[in-house]
Amino acid sequence: MPDSASRSSPSGPPAPSExxxxxxxxxxxxxxxxARPGRRIxxxxxxxxxxxxxxxxxxxxxxxxxxxIFVVLQLVFIPTLxxxxxxxxxxxxxxxxxxxxxxxxxxxVRSVLLGVVLPALVWDSDQRGFxxxxxxxxxxxx
Length: 142
Fold this sequence. Notes:
The structure is a single chain. By secondary structure, the protein is mainly α. The protein has one domain. The chain has helices at about 35-60, 65-80, 85-90, 105-115, 120, 130-135; strands at about 90-95, 135-140. A two-stranded antiparallel sheet has the order 1-2. The longest helix is centred in the middle third of the chain and has 23 residues, at about 35-60. It is elongated and about 50 Å long.
């Protein structure tokens, strides 16, 4: 992992990253690189569409039911498949920032915050949403 202290001036903050994920020790592109917005949006759209289909089938479409179904899909598939159905379909996976298994608690934190929506819209320079930062995860290309 790059040492941010080595990239800073003696009197200032660290130099800006050249690519998203550089500060995290992730490659610029290819497998293991930070997922870019297009794939992220496509993955969320697939997951939301699945939640809508289930909501229509069981609840004749109910906005609250759709949101709950969406969160449950995230809760089930992130710890078991390493990403939601949409993530996996577009070639992404959710990993803990410092390795290991994602585990249930990261999935819960990430999914609940994602269901609130706003944390997912606030990104840092590594293109990690607040939900990923709080859960200690990063969405990467498979």
